[in-house]
Predict the 3D structure of the following.
Amino acid sequence: MSQPLSIAVVGSGYVGLVAAVCFAEIGHHVICVDNDESKVKMLREGRVPIHEEYLEELLKRNTTNPVEFTSDLANATRRAQAIFIAVGTPQSKTGSADLSYVDAVASEIARSIDSYKVIVEKSTVPVYTNEWIRRVIERNGVPKELFDIASNPEFLREGTAVVDFLHADRIVVGAETERAGTLLKKIYEPLTNGSYYKKADAVPGICSEKNPPPILLTSTKAAEIIKHASNAFLAMKISFINVVANICEAVGADVEEVAKGIGSDGRIGPKFLRAGIGYGGSCFPKDVAAFRYVAEQLGVDFSLLKEVEAINEEQKRRFFQKVRSALWTFRGKRIGVLGLSFKGGTDDIRDSPALDIVQLLVKEGSTVVAFDPAAEARSKEVIPPSDKMLYVDSPYAAAQDADALLILSDWQEFADLDLKKLHYTLRYPIIIDGRNLYDPVDMIEHGFTYLSVGRPSLFHARDAASSSRQLP
Ligand code: UDX
């Protein structure tokens, strides 16, 4: 094993908490700092505020080398060799990233530096943020030789964040000095030299002792751009396939066949070509807007990203129209909804297209009966329960006596539902699937009217007669 280092991680949100727990998992001494005392207390008790596979288990497992949780940033700064800033960078009104939390943390760190530290940005930030952090720290009177700034963006997906961290496609380290680069390389050494994967209880994934993740050393600016450009590119892939799906719908082709055909080209790749109701979450919408803003500020025309955003909005509207085309009117209809989170496997509802669609349905006068395996509590904060918005505790309860069932997040357990049971539970066997979870042939065999995205609409015999007369 490599030598353990002392690391502070500032912020215990998705990125910070996962990084803190994973740094401890690979052997380092970790102090995780958050200014929210109630969160610190909860984490000290071993309770995890987010739904993330392996996180709670790893937190409890590392009892000999536990992550220390504190709200004392000054003390953590003094004790750490590297300080990772993983605080939020929310979207401001202009679309740019609001860096006030990063600014505040940098000033506080500066006031406590008494020996050499590497300050690492881990939050997704626009290019030049490292320069701003440097200025803030210098402005607070810290001599140049006492610190370096580095950029180490995170590419983790919610739901699989721990696995993504420990089995990364690549680790990107942007550093301007050799000593900062060397320290970061040491931090990741248990992964990059493969030793972590030899541990009997290592979290399983694509990397192994023989196939460890590569580390890419770049400039800090390049590292910052890599993060924004990666997310913008993936969002673009999704918008691209969504438009292709709309073309498929217009001509009666199947987008799944088309996605397989184009994704088999090694230059394109099969991932992130799933058509649906558009992307959401805490990263893609915010990062596409922030990257577009960065380009604008630099005088670079990146209107391509505006199109990516416009297509994403349009995709929700189209889905809503599809529901309308199946139900005609909304007032007085009971609509079952499966999935409220922005994707399956997470309780996160930030920028969730599912919630946008639910809000529209309620506004139009429907009664929505919703089930989500993890996002109910968070959804209730945005759409409180009422006689028009009911939350239930199983998929079948959502389907009970409903005029139609909508699939809005891609949870595996929805794909595994008992279709026979679903059929007799619904008032009308109509499923409108925004995530293409089912095989259309299977659905028609089970007697459903089945509408999905970018695939031919299949009407049950009873609905077929009326649907053959196209109504506006
Ligand atoms: C994303 C990036 O994948 C990750 O690298 C980055 O660090 C943070 O942002 P995340 O937001 O957790 O991760 O979700 P992701 O799995 O990428 O999905 C984002 C959105 O795109 C979801 O709403 C998802 O449903 C949608 N999506 C994804 C599609 O509609 N089609 C796809 O093919 C893939």
Summary: The chain has three domains: 6-218, 227-310, 315-469. Residues 227-310 form a domain with the N-(1-d-carboxylethyl)-l-norvaline Dehydrogenase; domain 2 fold (CATH 1.10.1040.10). Confidence is low (pLDDT under 50) at residues 468-472. Residues 154-158, 231, 234, 238, 272-274, 276, 279-281, 283-284, 342-343 surround uridine-5'-diphosphate-xylopyranose (CB under 6 Å).
